[in-house]
Amino acid sequence: MQRILGLFCVLICFFATINAQVDFYRPLVPIHCNSVQKCPEEWPCCSPYGECGSGPVCMGGCNPRFSYNETSCAPMPALVPPNNIEYSSAPLSALDGKEDAAQLESRGLLHFNKYLISDVQSDARYMLENIAFTYSGPTSIHPQTGDIVLSMPRGSSGCLLAATRYFLYGRSSVRMRTGRSRGVISSVVIMSAVGDEIDFEFLGSELYQVQSTYYYRGELIYNKMLEVPVSSDTNANYHDYEIDWNEHRIHWLVDGRIVRTLYKEDTWDEELGIYKYPQTPMRLEVALWPGGLASNHPGTIEWAGGLIDWDNSPDMIESGKFTAHIKSMTVVPYTNRYISAINRCMRREHNIAYDYIMPPDGIFDEASFAIYCGLIPNIRKWSDSGFSIPRNPIQAARWSGKVFMSGKAFTPVNTETDFVQNINDLASLPNGTMIYNKTQENTFSTEQKSSGASTMAQNNPLRKIKGLASTFWVS
Ligand SMILES: *[C@@H]1O[C@H](CO)[C@@H](O)[C@H](O)[C@H]1NC(C)=O
Ligand SMILES: *[C@@H]1O[C@H](CO)[C@@H](O)[C@H](O)[C@H]1NC(C)=O
Ligand SMILES: *[C@@H]1O[C@H](CO)[C@@H](O)[C@H](O)[C@H]1NC(C)=O
């Protein structure tokens, strides 16, 4: 008996070790990515935590600045008006007894390492159209309340819930009860792949307030944080937390009341001549995580209120885990500079994706995006990256009113597509016209060309537009 038990343990421990170390989309020894070091070709995608990987790492939160090249990250499914994301809890009934994963999937939640990874096109389409959130960590549906429960058992790294669709301006609302006790952090944030972030962070040791903050391009400047009071214990009571973000300002709201406002004009950086204002597509993320983990940076532990007490905290004694409970979530996207192209696409297609393109100055802003109409940005397997997703100029041309190109053959795919062969004709095109430069393999919109109109006809006009225009690009 002793021996069998022993063998059993060896096998279990062996597989547990294998599983922990080799998950096939991350290297055995972590490879780090940052502003001075991009990911290598074998592990091309840079995660939000600065680690290289492939497959799922290329799908959500993949940072295009630090990834191997421009095509490593997959295009991001877009949330555009009039669509929104809504999760609202209802008690489980029909699903009683089913596994957590099945219950979660029936409510539009899927583990992040499965999302949009399939070589069956209909499965990929199903995921794109039915999965609103991905999760990692021990996530479940509460059988009585129907809340999404994020759990953090002893020694774990908690849970992350992330919306699958990105929006460029919009309002996100979360009704929840936060985790409690020292070192336990709950967050409601909207975050972009390049590190723009607007946050609510809850310390489990301070249950009558919340920290509001924001980041620009991942710059770790901590003096933007502002503490905001909440009317009652955030662990014992549900409250509404909302982030209302448009191109001019951000409102943080608690229970429907604006508790903080940030104006874009107040974020001007004199030296760089740019607004350090979040202006890249965001996704909603709700997390429960161990800020007070012994292995964390001392500054993080201190901020989190100290080390987590895994033995004596009330939740550990009662249920062996810390939890946060999400009652409902809503994301309503606002209009943005791409709206005319989006509307044209929406007449026949609901699957729209945003894709980062590298601007000449290397500084991403709200104009640094391609829009694909009708693209299902799936990959076949964990070893693939966004490179295997066909980003075809034709797809861009499908929604464009007109196409400009520099004299080379280009097959039209619908009757709305015209060609302009002469650069001088550019000035006569209506706003929102897409321009495709075959030589440069670039596409541009004339949407914002007003200020550039006079300079446009001068030498290398297309490059000039690039800085100003809503830029639609296919590579
Ligand atoms: C990007 O990387 C892929 C391999 O991952 C390569 O085949 C492709 O040519 C690269 N593209 C550019 C523009 O460098
Ligand atoms: C298209 O791009 C090429 C390469 O940058 C450039 O030389 C050319 O002028 C552009 N075409 C037009 C019509 O401007
Ligand atoms: C194009 O848009 C700009 C502002 O974005 C505006 O000033 C201009 O009048 C518009 N042109 C046309 C033809 O609509």
From TrEMBL:
Biological processes annotated in GO: carbohydrate metabolic process; fungal-type cell wall organization
Boundaries of every GH16 domain copy: 85-319
Coiled coil residues, start to end: none
GO annotation, cellular component aspect: fungal-type cell wall
Signal peptide: 1-20
A single MF term (Gene Ontology): glycosyltransferase activity
UniProtKB keywords: Signal
CDD domains (UniProt xref): ChtBD1_GH16 (cd06923), GH16_fungal_CRH1_transglycosylase (cd02183)
InterPro entries per UniProt: Beta-glucanase-like, ConA-like_dom_sf, Glycosyl_Hydrlase_16
Name of the protein in question: GH16 domain-containing protein
